[in-house]
Amino acid sequence: EMANLRVLKKEIDYCLEEVVFDCDMAICFQPSKEQEIFAVMQEAVALRNTLFSKAMNPAEPHNRSLVRKHYAALRAEMDAEFGKLFEKLSAINGEKK
User: Fold this and answer.
1) Which end of the chain has the lower number of beta carbons within 10 A, N or C?
2) Helices and strands per DSSP (H, E), number in the chain
3) Is 77 in contact with 51 (CB distance < 8 Å)?
4) Which among 66, 8, 69, 15 is positioned nearest to 43, based on CA atoms?
5) C-alpha span between 70 and 44 (Å, rounded)
């Protein structure tokens, strides 16, 4: 299970890095929207921290099958929540000012 946890944490960090990179790029192209874009970045960091603490604290740490389900649910949450942040960022990028 520790290997799974390590992989999951790497995936969460990778998602965060992607959002941060995209935000940095967006700020370069649209400096007028820096505050809005920075807010998305902060949300991404908060999401990463939330996911990490959930990953570290499965409800039933000694029940392997529940732990696996816990990680699977977290992965789904990670995809959905980071997906929303990417959508939010493209919405900001799409608005012309």
Assistant:
1) C
2) 3, 0
3) yes
4) 15
5) 21
Q: Per-residue pLDDT tens for 24-47? A: 999 999 999 999 999 999 999 999
Beta-carbon contacts of residue 32 (< 8 Å; ≥ 6 apart): 97
CA torsion through residues 28, 32, 38, 40, sign: negative
Nearest Cα residue to 97 out of 39, 51, 32, 42:
32
Among all chains, which residue has been given the structure tokens 């029940």?
63
Could you tell me the CA-to-CA distances from 93 to 5, 17, 43, 72, 76 in Å, in that order?
Answer: 34, 18, 17, 31, 26
pLDDT score, position 96: 63
Query: Quick one: which H or E segment has residue 15?
Result: helix 2-29
Query: pTM for the full model?
Result: 0.91
Are 40 and 16 in contact, with CB atoms under 8 Å apart?
A: no
